[in-house]
Structure formats: C-alpha cells, structure tokens
Amino acid sequence: IHPTFHIGLLYKYEQNDDALFPRHNTHTFYDWLVDEIMAHQWMNNKVELLIKWNLRDMTWEPVSNCKELEALDRYLKLQGIQDIHQLPQRAKKYA
C-alpha cells in the first residue's frame, strides 16, 4: 500500500453556508459520538458531565466542552431546569 491518492479525489474548498446549514459548527466534532449525559458533579465550582459515548466509554468532561450538545439540552430538561448553573451541587456520585 502506497501513501498516495489520485488527483481526481481532490475538491476545491468551499466555506460553510450559514443560510443553508444554521448552527452548523465545524469545530464541534464529537456531537454525533455522544449517547447521553449520565450525571454531573461540581468540582471547584465548575460543572463536569459524565458523558456516555456511543463506543460505550464514559468520561467526565467540563461543561465548557459540552455546551453545544443536544444531549445537554435533554439532560437539563430531565433535571427540570433550563440553565447549567441550576444543577444541584450535591448530585449522586456515579462511577
């Protein structure tokens, strides 16, 4: 196997069209990998979320990495709140 490719596979770069694809952020690469948010915890006055990935891994992620996830919207709705800062300080410890 040679690390080469045919020139026919190259395409001209075209920037995203925000009118056609609103809220499409090319920097959010892991949205499709998240199954659900399992829990949350407060560490030094910051929220961390326990993310269950589609490959069955679970990791604690800072909420700053998760603000654009639809799973976060679902988690907040299940908690009966609308804002991250309303999450209870003493959540059940998970894992």
From TrEMBL:
Gene3D superfamilies: 2.40.50.40. InterPro entries: Chromo-like_dom_sf (IPR016197). This is Chromo domain-containing protein. It comes from Pisolithus microcarpus 441.
